[in-house]
Amino acid sequence: MRYWTAVAAAWTFATLLSWTPLSTAIDDSAYDWMSRLYAVSRPNPTALIVAIDETTLQQQGGMRSLRTVLAKVLDALAAAPPPVVAIDFTLADAGDAAEDALLAAALARIPHLVLATDIAQDGSGWQDPQAAFSRTAEALGHVHADPDPVSRRIPLEKAVGRTRRWAMAFEAAYPHWAATLRESPDGLELAAGGGTLVIPGTRASGRAVAVRFAPTTRMMSASQLLNHTAALPPGVQAVFIGTTAMTAARDRLMTPLGRMLTGVEIHAQLFETLREGRFRVETSPALVLLSGLSLTVLVGVAFQQRGWRAYAMGLPIILLAHAIPHLEFQQDRIFPTFGPILTAWLVGVTAATFQYFGQRRQLVRAQSEKARYQEAIHWVTHEMRTPLTAIQGSSELMTRYKLPEEKQRQIADMINAESKRLAQMIQTFLNVERLSGGEVQLKREPVAIERLVGNCVMRARSLAERKRQQLVAEPGTGTTLGDAELLEFALYNLVTNAIKYSPEGTEVKVASQLQGTELAVSVRDQGMGIAAADIKKLGTKFFRTDQAEKSGIAGTGIGLSIVREIITRHGGRLEVSSALGQGSCFTMVMPVSVTEGVER
After folding, report:
1. What residues does each domain of the chain span?
2. What's the mean pLDDT in 385-391?
């Protein structure tokens, strides 16, 4: 459950990031790159650009003679007019009267003419051509590309107030005099030439269509046409006339091809896209979301495997996330790049990291268990050897020799004592293992501190008397919640340790007091004391101080670890203050019970 929660969190984070402007910018850059990588091939283009280039302007008198040049080009085309002529000039301003009359006459000789119109800079209306020009035109088409800043899509319709204009390339490709148009909120449907064409483009986007840019467009210089050095090639369905001269073209726009194109070139590219009837369609958000979820599940399942299998299964899925946008793009479907790739990688890294640390935790746990097992075996072999040796040696004496009855009784008592000692060692070992493994279920019942101290002092008094020590008890009042037997075991261990490590004739004092919301039970002795460097190690299993080892006092270094474990499990702590030669004070600090109950 924790693993899949982490995987779901990674998917959610990646999905949220895929809706940010950063994601949009990356997706647009990937779209441009794939447009160049999978460049459109048009061996037989149907549009021709008649370019008024630098050469034409130099030969015909420059920009001040532009309308005269345009009239001459139209006259040259009128001899064998193409199906459609689209002029990428907004002829909204009045010019020289004679020049305008010449151009109007030339326009009238073109049977199917599309003129450009533009939205005024203040957005107040359309800048339509002069009436003398527009009366001969079949249609007026807008020339807006709406770059952002790369011109990837062109809106087929623009509206100002109640007046709507279709794009110039759209009017040239499917003129209203040759096609039946039906509109819907999600696209356009054209019935022309005995067939039906569906053009994607929502009304909310202005019927924006992604242009399938080809690396080159069919183009000829207007000077070639005027000098009769070139003729219209066969198969041309539309001629676009516009300026390509660097000094005259104001509408140069960046395109996905990685270079700037003039407006007339972009219109010709849109015309080819419309005539081909192949459109790049955005993948629906629901499908993108579903694909991200599918990648998440696949990557999550892959990294549930162990070792190299996880990477062998997971990496191909991540590579698939990279491949999907490419495969979709080649089918003219625009699939987001950033979201799926981010999802696959983020989920993969999260899953792999989770599994790595999970396996590391298992390894550490296994190593810890192995170390505990080795320590236990070491303790068993070292500490139990003495009583076993005594038992074996004594039993052999009794079987091999005929001993006096008194001697037999002594040996029997010794065997009994060593057996009990061995049983106690085994019980201690089991207690440590159960506490360390979390197998001991603590009781939660009221434990009176006065009763706890009294029981421990009473049990340990005989040990103190053997060493002629004075065991003093100053029990206070108060109650804590816990397991009375385990708490008594812990306190009794502290008291017997104090007696064991204190010399004869000294005092061992057990006291308790209330400290706010805590109860402190301290055991103070006048023994050998503990070095400051060793205090931090107290409570570590099998650890004994150098002073304890040198004293010759028997011990396993295991009892204090049980004490610390018991106190910690009860929500308390063990505090130690000591100095060499000045005795020690061990304090059990336990939380006070807010409920006074039955005492144990």
Report:
1. 2-21+283-363, 39-280, 384-436, 445-591
2. 72
Contacts of 318 (CB under 8 A, 6+ apart): 299, 344, 345, 348
User: What gap in Å lies between CA 208 and CA 340, rounded to an integer?
Assistant: 25
What are the tens digits of pLDDT across the range 179-223? 678 889 989 888 866 678 889 989 988 899 999 999 989 999 999
Tokens in use for 316? 């191909």
CA 109, CA 380: separation in Å to the nearest integer? Answer: 114
Query: pLDDT of 279-319, one tens digit each?
Result: 999 999 999 999 999 999 999 999 888 888 888 999 999 99
277: left (phi over 0), alpha (psi -120 to 50) or beta: left
- 578, two tokens: 């000591």
Q: Regarding beta strands 113-119 and 126-127, do their DSSP bridges make them parallel or antiparallel, or are they unpaired? A: antiparallel
Cβ neighbours of residue 29 closer than 8 Å, sequence gap 6 or more: none
CA distance 539 to 545: 11
Classified as helix, coil or strand, 46 is: coil
pLDDT band of residue 72 (cuts 50, 70, 90) is very high
pLDDT computed for residue 362 by the predictor: 75
Closest CA to 518 of 480, 566, 568, 489: 480
State both tokens at 352: 């792999």
Prediction pTM value: 0.65
Strands 260-261 and 281-282: unpaired
Q: Which of 318, 304, 297 is nearest to 356 (CA)?
A: 304
Q: Output the DSSP codes for 447-461.
A: EEHHHHHHHHHHHHH
**Three-class secondary structure of residue 510 per DSSP:** strand
Is-same-fold flag (384-436; 445-591)? no
Question: Which of left, alpha, beta for 63 (phi over 0: left; psi -120 to 50: alpha)?
Answer: alpha
DSSP string, 362-394: HHHHHHHHHHHHHHHHHHHHHHSHHHHHHHHHH
CATH tag, 445-591: 3.30.565.10
The pLDDT of residue 373 is above 80: no
Residue 600 has pLDDT above 50, yes or no: no
Stretch 338-345: mean pLDDT, rounded? 93
Name the pairing type of β-strands 126-127 and 139-142.
unpaired
For residue 358, is pLDDT > 90?
no
Residue 337 one-letter amino acid: T
Residue from 157, 191, 215, 209 nearest 332 by CA: 209
CATH for 384-436 is: 1.10.287
Bridge partner list, 591: 518
The DSSP letter of residue 128 is: P
User: What is 541-597 written as a DSSP string?
Assistant: TT---HHHHHHT----S-HHHHHHHHHHHTT-EEEEEE-TTS-EEEEEEEEPPSS--
**Do residues 375 and 541 lie in contact, with contact meaning Cβ atoms separated by under 8 Å?**
yes
Element holding 469 (H helix, E strand): none
pLDDT at 176: 58
Q: How many residues does the chain have?
A: 600
